[in-house]
Queue: 3 jobs
Job 1
Amino acid sequence: MPDLHSTLKYPQQKSNSDLPSTPSAHFSILAFAVAYTLFVIYGSLVPLDFHPQTWDQAWETFQHIKLLNVGTQGRADWVANGVLYIPVGFLTATLFTRSKRHSTLVLAFIGSLLFSFTLAVAVEFSQLFFPPRTVSINDVAAEFIGSALGAFIAVRWPDQFRLFLSMLMGNPDRLVARILKTYAIGYVAFSLFPYDFLVSVPELKWKLDSNSWGWLIAMEPMRGNIALPLAKLFAETLAVVPLGLILCQLTTGRRSWSPTRLFIAGGSFGLIIEIAQFFIVSGISQGLSVLTRAAGIYLGALLWRHRTHLHLSRLASELRRFGLPVGILYLIALAAVNGWFEHRWIGSDSAMNTLNDIHFLPFYYHYYTTEQAALLSLTSVCLVYGFIGILVWASWNPPALAMLLATLLAGLMETSKLFLENLHPDPTNIILAGFSAWATAKLANRLTSAPVASAEVSKRNDSPVVVASDFPIPSRPYGSEAEASARMPTINKQTLDTTTSTLPLTLLKKPSWMDYAVLIAGLACVSWGVTTFPNQLALIGLFFVGYSVLLWYRPQSLLIVVPAALALFDFAPWSGRFYFDEFDFLLLTSITIGYVRLPAAPRHSKRDLLFLCLAILLGLSYIIGTVRGLLPWQIPEINAFTNYYSPYNALRIAKGALWAFLLYGLFGRLASNGQNIRSLFAQGMVVGLAGTIAVLIWERFTFPGLFNFTDVYRVTGLFSQMHTGGADIETFLTLSTPFLVVQLFEKRNWITRLIGIALLVGATYGVMVTFSRIGYAAYGIAMALSLLAAMATSSNQVRIWSFKRGIAAFALTALLLAVAVPIFKGPFTQARMSQAEADMGIRLAHWSNALQMRDPGWPTALLGMGIGRYPETHSWRSKESLAATYRLGSETGNIFLRLGMGSPLYIEQFITIEPHSNYLLSLNARSDQPNTQITVSICEKWLLTSARCAFKLIDVTGNGQWQSLQTNLQSDEVGSAPWYAARPVKLSIYNSNTQTNAVMDVDNVRLQAANGDDLLTNGAFSLGLDRWFFTVDNDRPWHIWSLPIQVQFDQGWLGLVALSLFVALGLWRAGRNAWRGDAMAGAILASSVGFLVIGTFDSLVDSPRILMLFLLLIWFCGQATSGSAPTRIHTQRAFD
C-alpha cells in the first residue's frame, strides 16, 4: 500500500517476472491506440446523420474546401481539433518506439505522422457524408499540428508512458509519485482548455464587458442551479489538494511551510490560473477561485504533515466505518447537482414528450455544445460517479460491482431529468459513470499495493530499476551533479572550448569497402561535372583535386571553404549553368569525403530530439513541396535545366535544403570529434565577406565610381542569382558581418584588428551601395545585436558588461555612421526613401496577386503549389506585367533559341572587344509575325545595370521562314576604359517587338572581328545554353518579395508552420545563450534576425545558396542545447 513517509533510498530490484511482459505492455498500447482512434473517428462523425452522395461529388467538394475565418467563437473548436489528435500522434508513435535507438525514434515519428495525417484527411473527407459536420482546411491543419505535437512528445520522452504502464499494470514502484506528477500536468492543461486565448484589443474589450469574470464572483456561472457553482467551488478546492502534496514533497528538507506562506503560495498559484483564464475567450475568472485554490494547497500541506497516518488501509477502514452517513450525504449531493432541488417537477405527459426527443447516440449532446462545456460535463460526471468506485474499493468488493452500481445510479439520475422542467437526460452520462467508477476502483486497488519512495528519490530518480521495455532505462548513473560533471567526456567540452582546427589523423575513420564505394561514386559525379563544365576546365579541375586532398587530411576545412565559396565560387554568368553548378560539385565533394573520413558520433550520445523532430517536419515539407513542384512528371528534355519555367526548378531550389540537411550530419560529426565548428564557420563567413567586399569595391570603382551616390547603379557582387533581382548580396553582407564583429573583439593582434575594422567599414559601405531599404534596416539591427553580444563576456553563466568593450563598440558605431550617413543622404537613396509608401502599395498588390494565382482547394492551401512553380504560375495566371519567355527549340536535330514577348529579357554572353572597332554580326532569325525586329547590343555590364552600349535593331520579314541576316556593329566607346578600370562587356539578344504574339527564333549567332575570329561560343546553341546567361529588368515575375508568402505559396501552411517552429526554436536557444554571455551565439542570432528582417520584403528562399546558408545558421542556433551554458574560450581577448 502507498506510504508517503517511506524512506527507501534505493528501491530493490525486482525480477522481470514481477513486471508485465513486453508483449503485454505493447498489446496494451496497441489496444489504447486502436480504441482511441475509433473514438476519434466516431466522435468526428457524430451525430452520424449520413447523407449519401457519389464519390466524384464528394471528391470534387473536398478539393475545394476553404480556409475559414473561424473568428473568436470558432477558435476553441479549431484548437480542440488539434488537441483531439495529440493522443493519436502520441499513441501511434509510442506504439512504434519499442527501442530507444535514434533511428527507431525517427522512424516512429515519421510513421506516426503518416498515420495521423492519413487519418485526419480520411476523417475530414468522410465528414462530407455526415452533415452538419463542417469540413475546412482549418480542421486539417489543426489535426496535423496536434498529431505532430503528440508524436514529438512520444519520441522526446519515449520511456515515460511505458514506465507509467509498467507501474500501472504490474510494477507498482513509485506509482503514487507518477500519478501525482501526471495529475499536476493534467490539472494545468485542463485549467487552460480550450486554449482560445484573446488575440486582439477588441476581444479584450469584449472580455472586460462580459460577465464571465468578477473581482469576487463571476455572474455567468451563477445562472440557474445554485448547487452547480457551489459544487464547482468545492471541486476547485479538492482539485488542488494533490498539488499541495507535491509542493511539500518537492521541498522536503529545504523549506518549512508556515500556514501564511502556504496560503500565499496557493493564492499566487490560483491568481496565475485565474489571470490566464481571463485571457481565454471561454474562460471564467473570479477572485473567489483564488481563495479556493489557496485553501486546497493548504489542505494538501496538512495531509503531507500527517502523512504518517495516511495509509489507504486506514482510509478504507474509516469509509467502512462511516459508510452509511457518507453514502447518504453523497446521494443528497448527487441529487442536488442533478437539479432535484432547483427545477420544478413535471408530470408524465411532459416526460414522455421529452423522452421522444431524446437522442441515445453516445456523445450526441457533446457535439452541440462548446468544447469547454463538453469537457467540463465529461469530467464532472466522471468525478461524481468515481466516488462510487472509492466506496466499492473500501468495502473490498470487485471493480465490476462499482461499474454496475454507478450505471444503475446514473440511469436513475438521468431518468429523473425527464420529470424536471428545462432538463433533458444525456444517455452518455450512464456510460461515463460506469466506466469512471470501474476505473477508480481499479486504480485504488493498484495504489493499495504500490510502495512509494521517499521525497529524495522522488526528486532525483523517477524511474524504477527494472521496467517493461525493449530498451534499458538508466537509474542515477552518478552519485551527484558534481560527479556527473567530473566524469563527463572531455570531447563534449572541446566542442565548446577548443581553439584548435586540426583534427588528428588518428581520429579520422579508416574507410571500409562501402566507404570507398561511396567515395568513388561521389567523386565520379564530380569528375563528370568538371569535365563537362563549359569553361576553365583546367583551373577548376586543379582546384577540385587540391580541395579533395585537403579534405582527405583536414576534413574540418570544409567549415571554412563552404561559406566562403558560397559567396565567391559562382561562375554562372560565364558558364550558363545555374541548375547544378560548380558550388554543387564542391558541396558534393565535401559531403562525400567528409562522411567517408569523419567517424560518426558516439552511438549513445545525447540526441536533440526536439530539434531533430522539427528538422524532420521541415524536411518532410520540402520533400512534399519538391514532389508537388515536379508534378505532373515530365521526362527531362533540352529545356528541363535551362529556365525557371521548368518543373525541375523545384530541384534547383530544394537542393539548398538538401545540402543543408546533409551538412548537419557532417557538422555534428566534427563537433563530436572536438572541433570548434562555430569558430571555423565564422572564419569562412569572414573570408567570404572579405572577397565580397573586394568584388563590390571593384564593381563600384569600375562602373559608377566609389563616391558617386547619384547614379542608379546597384551592386550585385558575384551573386549570379540576382540576374532576376533579389536581395542576395545585402543578405550575405548582413549575415556575415556579425561574425566579423565578434571576431574583431576576440583578436588582440593590432594588425588583425585593423584589417577587421577595414572590412567592417567595407561591409557597411557595401550594404549602403546596394540601396536596399530593407537591407539598411536588417544590417542596422544585426550590427546592434552583434555589438551588444560582443560587449558582454561570460563567467559562470552570468553576463559581465565590459566598459572597454562598450567604448570600442561606441567608437565602431561612430565610424560606421560616418560611412553610412553620406550615402544615405545622397540623391539616389533619398529618392528611394521617398518612394517607400508607393512601393509598399505595389508590394501589397503583388503579394495579393501571388496568393490569388494559386490553385483552389485544401491541398494547395495545406501543401502549397510546389517548390519552384511561382515563375511558371505567374506566366500563366498573373494580372501583372508578364516576363518575356525563352526556350530552346529543336527541328530535325537542329537546336535554336526561341524568344517570346513580355518585359525585357536578355540572353547574354561575355565577350572581349576593342573600342572604336567594327564587328560583323550574323545570325539566322525567324518569325510568323510581319514587321518584327530583334535587338542585339554590346554593353559594358556586370550583371544587371548597363553602362555604355552599342545597339543594332535587325528587321525580320516574318514569313515563317529562316532568314540569314548580317549587319555591322560598331563598338564606339564600349570597352574604352583604362586597363585598371576595364569594364566587362556582354553581347545581348532580346525580343524588342511590341506585338503581343511576336515570337522570334534565333540561331547561328556570330560576332566576327576584323581577323575573322568568332568572339562568341556556342552561338549555334548546339550545346544548349552553355556560356549563355539571362537577365531581366522586371523582377516581379520571378520573386514574390516576401519570405513567408513565398514559403506559403511553395509549401503551404505545412511548410510555413514547419519553418516557423524550426526557426523559433533556434532563435530561442541562440538568444538564451547570447543572454548568458556567449558572443558567438549572439553573432549567429544577429545574422538570423537580419535574415528574417530582409525576408519581410524579399523571398530569399528561392535562392538555393541563401536558403542553405540560412538553414545552417538556424542549425548553429539550435545547438545551444538546454542546460548547457557557454564556456569561456581560454584565449586572450581584445578590449578586456
Job 2
Amino acid sequence: MAAQVHRGDVSDLKELKDQLKAWDDEKSLKLINDLLYKKASGELTIALCGHFSAGKSSLINTLCGTKVLPSGPVPTSANVVSIRNGQPRALIYPADMKPPREVSLDELEIYCTNGGDYQSVNVWAPIPWLGDSGVLMDTPGVDSTDEGHHKATHSALHLADVVLYVMDYNHVQSENNLVFAKSLSDWGKPLYLIVNQIDKHRDQELPISVYQQEVEAAFSRWQVTYEGLIFTSLKDMEHPYNQYEDLKELIGRLIKKKDALLEYSVSCSVHHVVEDAAQEFRDSHESEKESLLEEMGGEQRALKLQAELTLMEASLNQLAALPQQEREALREELNMLLENANLMPAELRDVAQQYLESRKPSFKKGLWFTGNKTALEQDQRQNRFLHMLQEQVASQVEWHVRVMLTSWAEKHQLWKDTHLQILDDIMPIIDSEVIENSLQIDAVLSGEYVLNYCRNVANNIKGKYRHHVQQFTEPLLAEFAENCTQIQDQQRVELADLQQQSAAASRYASLLREETARTAALAELLPPRGGLTPGFLPVVSPLQPLVSAAATVGALRAAPTMSPASARGGANLPRGGAAMGRRQRLAGAAAQLQAAAALLARYPAMASAARGLQSRAAALEGGAFTLALFGAFSAGKSSFANALLGEDVLPVSPHPTTAAINRILAPHGEFMHGTAKITMKTRESFLEDLKISFDMLHLSGSDAENWREVILPLTSEGIHPAGLPHYGFLKAAATGWEDAQGLLGTAQIVDISQYRLYVADESKSCFVESIDLFYSCDLTEQGIVLVDTPGADSLHARHTGVTFQYMKHADALVFVTYYNHAFSKGDRQFLAQLGRVKDSFALDKMFFIINAADLASSDDELDQVKQHVKSNLQSSGIRSPHIYALSSMNALNGKVRGDDEQLISSGFTSFEQTLADFAGKELPNLSIQAAKQDITAARKRAEEWDKLSRQDEVSRSGRLLQLLEIRSKVSDMLRTFTNTEDQHREIEQETKELLFHVRQRLQYNLGSFFQEAFHPSLLKEGIGSLKEIYADCGRELENSLLRELDQELWATTLRLELKVKAIVQEASYKLALQINDIDESLVLTPLKETKEWPVPELEDSKFENPVNWNALWSMFKAPKLFFEGNGREKLKLAVEPTLKEGLSIASLHQQPLFIFFYVNQLQIYLHQQRDALQEQLEESLEAMESSLQSQEAIESWSELAQDLKQFEQIIL
C-alpha cells in the first residue's frame, strides 16, 4: 500500500554517488552501494543486539531450529554474522579485505569468535520460515570493552531494517542497555525490546505488571521510542510469560512487510550515511580548525581581527612620521610662544628711548663737571633698561619655555631629574651685550628708531631662545625617535602575528564555508527522508499477568512465610545444613577448656595460664561466626542468603535491594524472632552523603532547606554511569525525606514486614546506617551471623573502610557472581583488594559462588563458565580459588519442600558441607590447638617443678640461692626488652617501602584506568553534552584512582600489622628462649595473638590539585578523532604527570600516620609480652621456691602434670 510508507526515492542516487566519488569519499560511497545492493536484493535484515550474555546467539539458534552460532554465558560473538535460509555453508570475510572463503558450519565457531582477523561472516542454514528474503544478524555485545566490537556493531546497523534489542532479565536497566537503546531509537529504525530469561521472574517477589511498568518507565525516562516489549525464555518454553512464539510470529509479519520496511530502512540509512559523511568531513577539519581557532584566539576574537589589523597598520604609519611631527610641533609651539611674548611694552620702550638718548655722542648731563655726571647717568639708564628687560624676558619667555619643554619631555617619558640643571645651564643670558648689539650710534633718535631698536632687541632675544631650545631638545628628539623605532619594531612583530591570525581566520572561515557547502550539496542530492504511517508496524500482544502463575509453573514458589518452627522462636528446629553440630562441638571444646582452666586455677603459679584458657573457652562458647556476602547487586546474594537460611527471609528482586549493611543473627534478650533493629543514619551522616552525591552530579545547595527542589527536575539523561547511583540515591532521598527526617539518629525495632521495606525500598533504605534482623533458623542458632553487604558496584561501596573491616575481620568471605554476568568495575576492585590482603589470613577463608548454575545447558558449558571465573580471579591475584557452581533458587525450593533430590542437584550441599567443616572444625581448631599448646606448656612447668621438689636438702639450699640470681638476671633482661630504636627504624623503613610500591603499582596501572574512564561507549554523540561527559570521565578517572589508592592504603595497614606482629613474635620468642636457657626449670611462653588488632583511622584520599578537565576540552575535538586518532593518548600524556604527582602526595600524606600508629602498636604489644613474661617468671619462681621449701608440693605438681596430660589427649 502506498500509504504505508512515505517514499524517498533511493533507487538510483547516481548524482550523490558521483559527488561522493569526486570527493574521494570511498567509505560513504561503499556504504551507499551496500544499501543499494541490499535494496536490490530485496532482503529484510533483522539485527539482534544486546549485552554479551543476554542470549542473542542462543535466541538466534532457537529461531533457526538448530545450532548455527556458538553460544554460552561467556562472550562468543566477536563478528557480525548474517544468517539466511539455504544449503548449509558459510562465507568468511577477512579483515584485510581479501576475497571471502567458504567453510563448513562445523568450523564456524573459530571464525565467529575471532574479531581480529575476520570482519564478518555470512551463514546459510535450512531455515524455511525466513524464506528467500529474511536475514537474521548477530552482533558483538554492546558492552564489550573491545573497541573493534563497537565499530563492528555500529557499522552493521546501517544494513539492519529492524532491530531486536535483547536484554538479560536482571540487567534491563543497566546504563549500557539504556544508552545503546537510545542511540538505536535516535537512528529511527524500528526497534523492539526483548527481555530474555523471563523464567527468572518470581511473581511473589515482584508482580509481573510492576516489573513491566518499571522497565517501560526506565526507557521512557531515556526517551527511547520502541515498537514493542517482548518477554522470552529459552530455558522454559512453556513458561506462562514466555512470548517466544509471539516473537517468531512478529518476525514473520515483518518479513511480509519487507518492501515498505526496506524502502524506509534504506532511506533512513542513506540519510545517516550522508549525515555521517558530512560529520566526518567536519571531523576531518576538526584538528586543523582547532589549531586555527587556537592560532586566531577563538571565534570572538576573529570578529575583531580586521579592525585590529587596520589600527595596527595606521599606528605603524603614525609612528614613522611621529618624530618629525613632534619636532615641527615643538618648533611651532615655541614660535607661537615667542611671537605672543610682549618683550617691549610701552613702559619698557620709554626706558629704551632714554637708554638710546644716553648713547648718543652729544648726550651730556648738567653744565658743570659734565663728564662724570654723564657717564653715571648713562650707566644708570643702561642698568635700568637691562633690569626691566630681564624681568620682562623672564616673565614672558623663559618661564613659559621651561614649562613647555618640561611638559613635552614628561609627556613622552623623556624627562629626567638632571634635565632641570641642563635647562638652567642653557637658558640665554640677557646682558648688556644684548642691548648694545642693536645700537646704531649715527642714527637719528626718533620714534621710529626707538621702535626698530626695541624690535631688534626682542628678535635677538627670541633668536637666542630658539637656538638654546634646539640645543636642549635635539638629544631628546633623538631619544624620542629611537623610542618610536623600538615601538615600531614591536608593533611590526604584533602586525605579523595579526596578519598570521587574520590568515588563520580566513582559512577557518573558508573551511566553514566548505563544510556548509558540502552539507548543503549533500542535502540537495538526498531524496526526502521516508517515513512509516502510524500503525503500519506489527505490534506484540501485551503480556497478561497470570493469577495462577505460581500453581502453573513449578519454578515459582508461594509467597514467603515463616515456618511453624520459626514462629515458635526456634524450638525444635530441624538440624541440618551448613551449621550442623557446630554449636555442640564448640560447646564441648569450651567445656573441656573450662575444666582445664578450673584445674589450673587451684594453683596460684598457674593463674595466667588459667586465665588464658578461660578466655579461649569463652570465645568458643560464644561461638559467633561471621559470614560476609559480597558481589554485584544482581549477582543473587540475597537469594543465596535465603538458601543458607533455609527460608525466604531477604527480599529478592531483579533490581538493587540491599542498600545498607544487613546482618541476620539469632534472637537474644529483648530482640524476639522476626524483629529487626533499624539503625538510622544521623542527620550529619545523611547530610554528608547528600553533599557527596550533590558534588558528584555538580549540583549546589545540599545544605539548603530546599535541597529537594534541586533534585525534583533532575533526570538521568546525560549523567555519567558513575553518577547514576548518586542520582538514584538523591531521588530516593527526596521521595522519603518527609517520613525519615524525624527518625534520623534513632534506632527502630520493627517486624519482618517493615524490615523488608527498609531493605528493598530505596526511599527508606537510603536513610539507614545498618540493619540487624533477629531470625531463628538452623544457621543462626548455631552462632553464625550472616552479613549481606551492598553490591560492590553500589553507591555505598565508596566506603572502602567498611568493606575492608568485614574483609579483615569476617570469619569467612563469600563472593557471589551470577552465572552469565560479567565482572563489574566494582567487582574487579573488590577482587583486587581481596588479592592484596589474602596472604594476611590465617586460613583461606574465601569462597567464590557461581549462582544460577541451573542456567547451564550442559556440563561443558558450566565448566566453561567456571574457567572464565577462575581466570578472572587469578588475574586479581587469587591463585587457587575455591569455586562452587550452584543454584540458590533450587536449593531453597528443595529445603522448603523437603525435596532432597532437588537440594543435592542444586550443588548447594557441597558448599554447605565445606562451610560446615570450615566453621565447625577448621577455624575453631586454630583456637583449640593454641589452647592445647598452652596446656602442654603448663604441664611441662609442673613436671619441672615436680623435679625440684624431689631434690635433697643440700641441693635445695643451693637452688634457692640460684633462684635469687635468676630473678635478678631475668628482671634486667625484661627491663631492656622494650628499648626498640632499631625496631622503630625497621617499621619506618617498611612503611616507606610499602608506600613506594603502592605508588609504583598505581602509576603502572594508570593507563588501564585511563582507558576504562575514557571509553568509546561513554563518549559518543547523542547522549548529552559531550563536554560535560568528557569532564565527568576525567573526574571518574580521578575518583577511580583515589578509590584504588584507598584500597591500597587499607591493604598496607594489614601488611604493616603483619610486620609488627612478626617483630613482636620474633622478639618475644627470642627473649623467652633466652630466659628458658638460663635455667631448665623455667618454661616461659609468649602470649599468643587472640585479639583483633586496631587499624588507623584513614580519611578518604583526595587530590590536592585536581585536573581542570574543562581546560583540557580542546584536546577532545570529536569522538572519532579522539579514539581512532591519537587524541586519547595525547590527553593521557598531558594529565599523567599531574595525576602521578597527586597520587604521590596523597600516599605520602598517610606516611607519618602509619609510622606513628604502628610504632605505637609495637610498643603496646611489646609491653604486653613483657608483662606476660614477667608474670610467668614471678609465678614460676614462687612455685619453685614453694617446691624447694615444702614437701607437700611433691604430690601436688605430679598430680597436676598427670591431669594436664589427660586433658591434652581428650581435647578435640
Job 3
Amino acid sequence: TTVTAQCSVASITAPTATDNCSGTITGTTTTTFPITTQGTTTVIWKYADAKGNTATQNQTVTITDTLAPVANAATLTTVTAQCSVASITAPTANDNCSGTITGTTTTTFPIATQGTTTVVWTYADAKGNTATQNQTVTITDTVAPVANAATLTTVTAQCSVASITAPTATDNCSGTITGTTTTTFPIATQGTTTVTWTYADAKGNTSTQNQTVTITDTVAPVTPTLADIKSDCSATAVAPTTTDACAGTLTGTTSDALTYNTAGTHVIHWTFNDGHGQSIIVPQNVIIAIPAATPTTAIPDANFEQALIDLGYDCLKDGKVITSNISGITTLDVNTKNISDLTGIKAFSNLQTLGCDTNNLTSLDLTGLTHLTELNCYYNALTSLDLSSLTSLTYLDCGNNNIQSLDLTGLTALTYVYAGYNNLTTLNVTDLNTSAELYCYNNADLTCIATTDPAAATANSLWQKDAAANYVTNNPILIGGAVTGGTPICLGSASGLLSLTGATGTILRWESAVSPFTTWTPIAHTNTTYTAGILTQTTQFRAVLINSLCATTTATPTTVTIESTTWTGTWSNGTPNANKGAIIAADFTATANLAACSLVVNNNAKVLVKSGFNFSIANDVTVATGSTLTFENNTNLVQSKDTNGNTGNIIVKRKTSPLMLLDYVIWSAPVANQKLQAFSPATLATRFYTYNPTTNLYNAIATPSTTNFATATGYLIRLPNNHPTTPTIWEGQFEGTPNNGNYTFAVANNTYNAIGNPYPSTLSADAFIDTNAITDALYFWRKTNNTATTSYATYTKAGGTANAGGASSIVPNGIIQVGQGFLTKPTAATISFTNAMRVTNNANQFLKTKAIERNRIWLNLAKDTAPVNQIMVAYMTGASSGIDPAIDGHFINDNSTALTSTINNEEFAIQGRSLPFSDTDLVPLTFKTNASGTFSIAIDHVDGLFEGNQDVFVNDKLIGTSQNLKKAPYAFTSATGTFSNRFELAYKSSLALGVQKPEFTSNSIIVFKQNGLITINAGKAIIKNVRLFDIRGRMIYEQNNIKLNTTVLKDFTAAEQTIMVQITSDLNEIVTKKIIY
C-alpha cells in the first residue's frame, strides 16, 4: 500500500512473503527511516530464504508539507523609543514540519525616523509555506539639548572682541550641538555685552545659555614727540596727530594760539582724547629766532632796512636780513626812501628790476647781478657807475647824477640809456646798437663818444649831447677790437702767434693776466701780432689802444690755456690727451696707453708702465727728485718735440732673448748718463766692447765703471758671469734722463759702424734706412754660444733673416727695439736719428706688418742637425736682378761655412728679385765649408705667393738632382771648399728645366772623411766597387758588389796618410780621387 504523510514517515510495517521451503519470510529494506524527503520515495523490500533465493517488492511513500507556520504570539508588542530603535528581537512561529521559525524583515535598522514605522515579519518554512505578522515601532524626540558647560567664561578685552568660539551642548538625539547667536561681531562697545547662545536639535527642541563680554579701554593714546617749530620771523602750527590703541589716529586740539611772530619760545599744549576716558596733553615749542648757521646779509643803512621791513622782507630789525628771504626777489622798489647806502643789494641775486632813484646814493655796487634787466638810479649823487657785470641790462636811467665816465662796453642788450644831466666827459658805447635810445644831453664836458659806427650815431637824433641837438665829434674812432690765436697749449710751451684784429687807434702796449684775470701786467710791444714765451699757467693777452680824444681802450682778450690734469688717485680734470698735460702726484700703474702733451711726475710718486703699454708725450718729461718713472720690458716712451727738454731720471727695463752664459748682446742706451758697468754689474770688466770701423774688430773698453753709454752707440756686452748655462732671459735696467729729439752723429762711411737705437721707444728700421740712405743691410748680433753659426741676423727693406734659422731663431722684420744696438755700413759720413722714426711697437722682437708687396723664401743651412745660417730671397717692389741698395744685404762673412745667394759674384744674405715673378727664374747659390760632412737645405718659412701652391726647388747640379723643398729638406754631402756653381734655387723641377744626369766624373764623385770613416757619394750613379791604394800603389782595402750611390767604409781603419780612392760604377766607369786620411 502507498504510504502518504505530512512532513515524514518514521517507519513502515515490513511486508511478508511465503517461501516454499522456509515458509513466511519478512521483507527487509535498505531505505533509511525516517523518510523526510518531500515527494515520492520508493522503498524496495527484499525476501530471502535460507538458501539465498530472493525476491523483491516495491512500496511507495509520499511526503507532503502544505501547512504554513503559525505565529507563536497572536499580537506583537508595539515598540516605543526616543530618537531611534537600533534593533528588535525577531518574533517566532511554529511550523508543523520545520518546528520553530524565526521571523525576518526587510526593514532597515536602526530606525531613526520620527513617528510610526510598521515592521513586517515573515515566517517561511522549508517548503516555502509562509505567514506574516506586523509589529509597530514608534520614534519620538521631546528632550532639548543640554549645554556642555554649566557656565560660560566671561570674555574681557581692551578695545574690541572680533569673535568668540561658539560653545556646544549635547543632544540625546543629535549629539553635539554648536551654539548660535544673533549678537554682531566685532563687539567694540565699551562696557558689558551679553551674548545669548541658542542650542537647537533637529526636532526643534531648544535651550539657551548666556555669556558675558566686557570691553574696557584703560590705555592712554601714544605720547607723540613733537618737534620744535622754528622760524626766523613767524610760524603757524598745524595740529599734530598721534595714535591710540582703540581709537586709531587722533588729531590734537588746543586752546592756545597757533600763530606766533614775536621772538622767543612759545608753548602750545595739545590734547589728545580717545573718547573712552583716556587723554594726554603734549607740549610743543614754537621758537622764533635766527638759527645760528642761517646766512644773513648786513644792511647798514637804517633807511634801506626800514624799506625792506615795510616790504615784508625783513623781520629781524637788527641791521641784518636773512639772505634766503631776499635771494629770490626779482623786483625791488626802494625809491624816495632817503637811502644813502645800498650795501647788501648784491644778495638780491635774482633781481631783474631795481628802482633806487631819488635817494642820497654816492656809489652803487651791483657786481654779480647778472639777471638785472632794468635799473633806475636817477636823482642821486653818484660819481661813477660800474655796469660791467650787468650783461642782461636792457633799460638804464642814471640821469641827474654826478657821473663823469660811463662805459657801456659788453652791454649789447641795452635798448634804452638815459645819462643826461651828469658830468660826463667820455662815453663808451662801442657795443651799443645804433638803434638804441641814447640820451646824454646836458653833459657840458662830453667830448667823445666811443662808437664803432659814428655815421649811424650821428644820423640817430637820439644820440645828442645837449638839448640843442648838437652831436659829439667822434673822430678819430677808437675800437678795441679783439686778440685772437689763444689755444690750449702744453705746460712749458710758447703761446703761438696772437693777432690783434678789428681795432682802430694806436697800440700803446700789450698786457697779460693770469687767473682771476684782474691784474694786468704791461708788455712792451706795439705790433699787431705777438708770441709769448714759455708759459706755466693759463694766461690772457690783450692790446691797449689810444687816440687823441678818447684816451685808451682795450681789445677783447684771448686766453692761452695751459690744460693739465693731476693724478692723486683719480684724474682731476679728465684723462690726459694730446692737448692736456699730465701731472702724476700719487702712485700710478699704467694698464692702458697714455697720451699727454707733457708729463710731470712729482710728490714722491712711483709710476710704473706695465709691459704692452705706451706713453706718448708731445713735449717734455719731468721726473722730480724722489719720484720714479719705470718702463717695463716692451713698453715705449714716444715724444714728438724735436729738442730734448726732459729732466730727471727714468728707468727702462729690457729683456734679452733666451741666452746662455758667455753670450753677448749689442746694447744701446735709451737714456743719458748710464754707466756701462752699472748696467751689467756682474759682467767681467774685460767684456765690454766698442766696434772699431777701421779694423772691423771689437775693442775692449778700459774702464767700463766710469764710461757712459754714448748716445746712439752700440756696445757689445757679455752676459753677467753668474748667468745660467742654459738659454735664459736676462733683464737689463737703464736709468737716466730719457733721450729725445733729433740726433746726428759722425760715422766712418763705407765700413761697418756699431750704432744703436737712442730712444726709449722702438724705431722703424725702414724709416732709419730711408732717412740715412743706407744701401746695405742692418746686422743684429744673434750668436748664441755656437761657433758653427754666423753671429748676425740680417735686415734690409726686403725683410730679415735669422743668423742660423731653426726653431729658436729670431728674424728681424722692421722694428729696432729699445736698447738695441746693431751694425750698418753707411755711405755717408753722418747718421741721423729723428723722432719721426719712433713707433709704438710692443712686441718682444722685431716684427712689422707688411706695407709693400713682398713674396719671400727663407732658407736654412744646417750641418748634420745644427743650424749654420739663414738666407732670404724676396720678389718685391723696387727690386731687380742686380744689386739693389737697401734691399740686397751682403753676407757679413763671419763664418767659414755658409749658404748665400750670388749677385755679380758677391755673396748676399738677402737678395731682392724683380716683379712680376716668373717660375722660370733661377737664383744662383754659393755653398762653402771648411769641414766636410753632411748638410741640408730647408725652407724656414715663406710669405706672399709662396704661401700658395708655388713649388720651390733646389737644383744640385753637381750630382744632377732636384729637390722640392716644400715637400722635404734637401740633404747632401760635401767636401771642403767653395762651390759657387753647384746649387741654384728654382721654381720648376730639374726635368722641366732640362737638367741632365751628370757623368760619372771626378767632379761628380764626392769623397770625404767624417768621424774617422771614409764616405763616398756618387750622386745618382751606382757604385759597383771601391778600392783603396796607399801612396806607393799598394791596394790596402777593397769592397765589392756595393750597388748603391752612397757608401761608408765602416770596416776600414788606417794610420794618417794619403790614400787614393778608386771608384768603379756599375757601367765599369772608373774615377780615382785622393784624400788625406
